[in-house]
Write a structure and sequence with these properties.
Family: Belongs to the MYG1 family.
Strand content: 5-15%
Radius of gyration: 28 Å
InterPro entries: MYG1_exonuclease
Mean pLDDT: 93
Shape: elongated
Strand order of the largest sheet: 4-5-6-8-7
Number of strands: 8
GO cellular component, one term: cytoplasm
Distance between the termini: 88 Å
Oligomer: single chain
């Protein structure tokens, strides 16, 4: 059944799929692992010729939609040719983890494996799969070795897909919290969830969330993904100080990392108070710097005017 586009539902209703026999590679192994993730009961049949009237999905052999050995094989816009894994992920990935996470997974995991299968250039993950193959003088059954590699790839795929789904769940939590951001730019999360991808591009300036140790953490937010400079810094005098010194300033403040990017508070109210203090001091410092800049500019212009006269 070599359709132009396969769906998760179709895989769920299949009994078997077919791929090539003999030596295996990361492409066919990870393709099989992806299909088994969708349908654990799927039978993976291997051989050197596709059986006549085979009704399941065929990949990495046979010249169909999920083979890639033809001269007119598709190439991504960035120049990386598709292999079977990439073609399957392109069609199935968005259904499994959503468009955004599917694209990231393709870039970080799928494309390097596709590149390996099309060029022979190895990467660590493809090398691990290749190591499962029997050596030239090994009498071990290649199909048994294939299924050993498949078990490894299946565990890897399972973990990565769960991680992708987790990020989507986190995004939903953080986006909802962002709707209730206060006028100062403080976001309070109902529970910890990875927040950087949502909050860094937003107007949020500081984030508060419950700590696993109890209490609440106050954390700075970077200005961009490429730089660590915070939108609002925590007061430098907090960084690395002992608890009694911190509590003398804010009774609920128990800890501040020496790097100054995170502070711990006993209560949410204390964390909010700390965030408001940090923002107030940052705004005051910014205003003073702006005033100093204008004064220096004025003095420079006046000095230049005197020289001209």
């Amino acid at each position: 059944m070599n359709t132009a586009k396969i769906s998760v539902e179709q895989i769920e209703n299949m009994d078997s799929v077919f791929t090539h026999g003999g030596i295996f590679h990361s492409d066919d192994v990870f393709s099989a692992a992806l299909l088994k993730h969708i349908n654990p009961n799927l039978e993976i049949i291997r051989g050197f010729k596709v059986p006549e009237n085979f009704q399941g999905l065929v990949f990495d052999i046979g010249g169909g939609a999920y083979d890639h050995h033809q001269v007119d094989n598709e190439i991504r816009e960035n120049g990386v040719p598709f292999a079977s894994f990439g073609k399957l992920w392109r069609d199935l990935g968005p259904e499994i983890v959503g468009e955004s996470e599917s694209e990231k997974f393709d870039h970080s995991i799928v494309q390097p494996l596709d590149h390996t299968d099309n060029t022979g250039e190895r990467n660590p993950l493809s090398s691990v799969i290749s190591s499962f193959n029997p050596t030239w003088d090994d009498a071990a059954d290649a199909d048994e070795k294939f299924h050993a590699a498949l078990n490894f790839a299946s565990a890897f795929i399972q973990n990565k897909i769960e991680s992708c789904k987790s990020k989507e769940r986190a995004k939903a939590i953080v986006e909802e919290a962002l709707l209730f951001m206060d006028e100062k730019g403080i976001v309070v999360l109902p529970k910890y969830a990875p927040w950087s991808e949502t909050l860094i591009p937003s107007d949020a300036r500081l984030v508060i969330y419950p700590s696993q140790r109890g209490g609440f953490n106050l954390q700075v937010i970077s200005r961009s993904f490429k730089e660590r400079e915070a939108k609002v810094r925590l007061p430098e005098r907090w960084a690395g100080q002992k608890e009694d010194i911190l509590r003398a300033e804010i009774p609920e403040l128990s800890f501040c990392h020496a790097g100054g990017f995170l502070a711990a508070f006993d209560t949410l109210e204390g964390a909010k108070r700390g965030a408001e203090m940090a923002i107030s001091e940052a705004e005051k410092s910014s205003a003073e710097n702006t005033e100093s800049h204008h004064l220096l500019k004025f003095l420079f212009m006046k000095l230049a005017s005197r020289k001209r006269s």
